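Long-time lurker. I teach an intro course on protein structure, and each term I like to show students one example going from raw sequence to a predicted 3D structure in token notation. This year I'd like something fresh instead of my usual example. Would anyone be willing to generate the tokens for the chain below so I can use it in lecture? Attribution to the forum is fine with me.
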Amino acid sequence: MTAVWAIFKKELRIYFVSPLAYVFLSVFLFLSGLFFYLGLTVNGEASLRVMLGNLAITMLFVLPMLTMRHFAEEQKAGTFELLMTSPVPLGSLILGKWAASIVLCLLMFLGTLIFPAVLAYYGDPDWGVMATSYLGLILCSFAFCAAGLFASSLTTDQVAAGLAGIIILLPFWLIGSATSFTTNETLRQILESAALLTHLRGFTRGVIDSADLAYFASFSFIFLFLTYRTLESRRWR
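-- Reply from a regular --
Happy to contribute to a lecture. Here you go:
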């Protein structure tokens, strides 16, 4: 855990000494405010349903760009070999970088809490649905950051890593729409169980299902494991 903490602090420091964290925080909060405004004025809903739903798809494009530098930058700068030969366990290295990205995501979510406060001042929002919706977004951030780390481990180019992360995640988001094009019930169930949107929908309705929790946990674990295997294969080249 000492190694994880050291990597975590280093990565978080890198985020905040560069413009990267501030750019992502600003963009995320601007889009949150825009979606909140559209939900109130266009749809006439005194809720966060529109905002939180749109933030999930926004994260799909933003988070791979947030994690793209983790390993791609190390390889391009020539410090990757030093990391691979350091006494820091590979698992600790991955977990530290992943945790730093997640904390930055939590800070982004923290900034959006002003919108529930506005709703609470002028009305009586459903706090249960709001809490589960935020939980769904947090679990999404776990999964998206894990996939972004995997993409970053595949290349030395940061932009390519960011685009690869989006390409990896996008099918999991769109696959749920494919269920309307198949009449095979077995195939339909498989597509629905693999779709991100299917498992996120329950949280937006105020329902916490163990199957949805297991999905996001498995999604994150699989991509962290793939990252580990990719970096381990590079260590012995």
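Some talking points for your students: The mean pLDDT is 83. Residues 84 and 186 are 44 Å apart (CA to CA).
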